Amino acid sequence: MFWYYLDLSWRSFKRTPLVSALMVIAIAIGIGITMTTLSVYHMMSADPIPSKSDKLFAVQLQTMDEGEGWFTKDDIPYQLTYQDAQKLMTDAQGNKQAAMVRTGFAVHLGNESQSPKLMDARATGRDFFSMFNAQFVYGGPWQQSDEDNAVQKVVIERSLSEDLFGDSNPVGQTVYLDKFLFEVVGVVEPVTDNIKYYDLNNGAFKRPERVFYPFSLVKELEIPTWGNSNGWKRELVKTYAERLESEIVWIQYWVQLDTEQGKSDYQQYLQNYIKEQQKIGRFARKEPKAVVRDVNEWMQYNEVVSEDNKILVLLSFMFLAVCLANILGLLLAKFMRRAPEVGVRRALGASKTQVFMQHLVEVALLGVFGGVLGILLAQLSLWGVRESYSYYSNLATMDLLMLLSAPLIAITACIIAGLFPAWQVCRTNPAYYLKTQ
Fold first, then answer.
1. Please, what sign has the CA dihedral across residues 221, 225, 231, 235?
2. CA dist 6 to 1, 23, 338, 416, Å?
3. Can you give the pTM of this predicted structure?
4. pLDDT per residue over 196-235, tens digit each?
5. Helix (H, G, I), strand (E, B), or coil: what is residue 326?
C-alpha cells in the first residue's frame, strides 16, 4: 500500500503544483535556517577529542589570599602562575603533563627570499603532542634533554613548512623566530580542527598555533606572552625574573590521567602541594581549592557554547514552527478540497486509517522535498558564515549527522503539521458527498 500511497501523493503534487511548491519552499526555508544554527551549535559543542577527553585535565589552583576574589563563578583562576606550573612539571605526577603559554614571533629564514611572517607560537612540553593526538608528517617532538637544557628546537605546522621549505622534509633545517635561530625537529598537522580547547583563554575558535617550542625557553629567552595575564595583588614587577616569581597567572597546565585512581591520586598531590606552599606564606586561605576538569567539563566551565548560541538555535526552531503553521493552513485547504474524492473512496470500502495514512505519506514526501532543498539552503548559509567570519571556517559545516538529521527533521515536522488536516479529511461522511454527486 505504501507505494500506492506514494503514487497518489505524486499525482496530488502534479495537480496542485503551485500550492505544493509553496509548501516545499516554506519547509525548505525553515529547515535551512534551523540547520544552519543547529550545525554551528553541534560543531561548537561536540567533543573535540572523544578518544581521550575523559583522560585530559586542565589544572586550576586557588592561589589568592583569604578575602581576595576572582572573576570566575567558583572564584578560581583559569591559569597558573609560572612558579606553580614549573613545580608541577618538575614533579611530573601525571601520566603526561604539559605547561604552555601563547607567544608569537616573526618567522623567517634569515634571507631576502622570503619576508618575515608574524604568527602565533606556543611554548609547551614535549608531552603536548602525544597528549592531544598531534599527527606528525616529518620528524617528531624535541627530546626531553632538549627541554631540560632549553635547546632551541621547534616543531612547525605543515602549512608553515610548505610556505618556508616547499614540499621537502625540513627536519634538520633552521628557521629564525625573531632573532633566535631554531632547528626544525618535526612537522605536524593542525592539532585541532574546530575548537582550540587546550587554550580557551585566548579564543576558543582561533586557528591553532603553527609554531611549537620547549617551555623551558620562556625563561631562558625571556619571551613575552601573547595571551592573558592577570594578578590579584599589588606587586612590583620590574624584571622578567620578578614576573616568573610573581603571583601573576598566565600559564595553562594540562595533565593526562589514565585511570580514576590516577585522578584521585593527582588531586591528593595538588592538596599536598598547596599545604607545602602554605608553609612559605602562599595560598593563605582557610580551604584553598585545587580542581582538575576534563576536556568537556573545561569547555562547559568556559562557556564555549554561550547562552546566545542556545537562544539562536531556539529562535530558529520557532521560525520553523511559524513555517509549519503556514503549511498546516495550506494542507488543510488542500485536503478539504478533495473531500468529495475521499468520500467516494470511503464509500468504496477505504477505511479511515487508510485515508489517514495516505495523507501522512503525502506530507512525508513533502518533507523529503523540503528537507533536500533545505540542505542546499543551509549549505549556502554556512558558506556565507565561513566567508564572513574566518574563525568559524571549520565550525560552519554540516557533518554526516547533520546531513541525515535535516530530512528527518523536515519529515517529522511535516507529519506533525499534517496530522490535523489528515485527521479532518479522514472524518469525511461518505453519504453526504454521494448525495451531492
1. positive
2. 9, 17, 17, 18
3. 0.82
4. 999 998 778 888 899 999 999 999 999 999 988 998 888 8
5. helix
